Amino acid sequence: VVEKQGNIYEINALAQNYYTIPLPLEISKDGNEYILKWGALLKNDEGLLKKNTELAFAEFPLTTYEFPKYVSDSTPLKVVDNQEEIIISNAHFSARIDKKSGKWISYKVRKEEFFGSNGLEVNLWRPATDNDFGAGLQKKLHHLKDADDTSSVQSVQYEELPSKEIKITIRKVLINNSVDYTQELIFDGKGSVLVKNHFVPLREDNTLTYKIGNHLTLTDFETLTWYGRGVWESYQDRKTSALVGLYEGKIKDQFYPYVRPQETGNKTDVRWAKLTKKNGRGFWVKSDSKLLNISALPYSPEQLFPGVDKKQTHPEELTFDKHTHLHIDLQQLGIGGDNSWGNLPMEKYLLYLYKPYQYSYRIEPF
């Protein structure tokens, strides 16, 4: 028997039947995303548990997320191309791409620098978790740690598109010439940048990778807002407790103080995120065709890694880095946890290096 009390449906008796319950809302084709949340609450006090304690919940998407369509701005751009770098600028912003490293290393909006020293990098590594150490991954995957710095830069070129946007194409070979990587940066007149990442394997085997993604070193940012799973961290094999919603928090609070510092703070199924400085300026990161993994921390990845031979470190010993560290990833290797002394994550949560990947996102200043 199902009785409706407002928007609450109370099940008084369970039988081997299916119930059709009308939704208490009208879903129109307005481009919005609708997700139905079901929860099971206690009707009465039971021991230590009080009435209305939620015992279980689940989410069911009623519509699919529609990725935003962007209309580029055609304000003219100036390009300086010399032996060392390419500089793109106008009255709104300036960007500098270093040809030697093949990195986008400077991004000034209204003359205020947003990027830290290392800028935007390809990233395949994470600070090992306790489960990673149990499986020996900190040694097996250590060669991924400096994938960008040890890469071979093939070319850095620019072209003007018919839309008046400027496209920078960076080509590198990663991991001992085993992955062909291309990054495209498409700048428009307002400083909005579409970042496209393409990974093409040059060999075939079952080598794992920690991540397929980008690491961005920023100046001092204070707040992270995101539309995705939260409010706490989530990973591809640990996210059903994190519901899709709109969340906001201080970047310093995105770090979880495990007994030993390690990978932390990841957000899954992110539609968009926004990073804001104390003065109110900042930028959006918007998914372009696939949902993202995002994390923003006040510590560098190196600060959270105790070394290949694990040292006993503690979160109380950490001091905030002078930079904010933003990760914008397609996917990350599962956390695992079937045991902590050898097991890898389940097969469906593994991430293999030598497969083709591509993903993109838009950086948009405000």
Describe the protein.
By secondary structure, the chain is mainly beta. Helix content is 2%, strand content 42%. The protein contains 2 helices and 23 strands. The strands form 5 sheets. A 9-stranded antiparallel beta sheet has the order 11-12-13-14-23-20-19-16-17, with no helix packed on it. Strands 5-6-7-8-9 form a 5-stranded antiparallel beta sheet, with no helix packed on it. A hairpin with a 4-residue loop joins strand 12 (166-174) and strand 13. The longest helix has 5 residues, at 130-134. The chain is globular and about 75 Å long. The relative contact order is 0.15. The model has no long low-confidence stretch (mean pLDDT 94).
How does the major sheet shape up?
9 strands, antiparallel
Strand order of the largest sheet: 11-12-13-14-23-20-19-16-17
- The rounded Rg comes to 23 Å
Number of strands: 23
Unreliable stretches? none
SSE string, helices as H and strands as E: EEEEEEEEEEHHEEEEEEEEEEEEE
Task: Offer a few descriptive terms.
mainly beta; 23 strands; 366 residues; globular; five-stranded antiparallel sheet
Short summary:
The chain has 366 residues and is an all-beta fold. The chain has two helices and 23 strands.
Give the SSE layout.
Layout (H helix, E strand, L loop, with lengths): L1 E4 L2 E4 L23 E7 L12 E8 L16 E4 L3 E5 L3 E6 L4 E7 L2 E2 L1 E9 L6 H5 L2 H4 L11 E9 L5 E9 L4 E9 L5 E9 L9 E8 L4 E8 L12 E8 L16 E4 L1 E5 L5 E6 L4 E6 L26 E9 L24 E9 L1
Antiparallel strand pairs: 1-2, 3-4, 5-6, 6-7, 7-8, 8-9, 10-15, 11-12, 12-13, 13-14, 14-23, 15-22, 16-17, 16-19, 18-21, 19-20, 20-23, 21-22
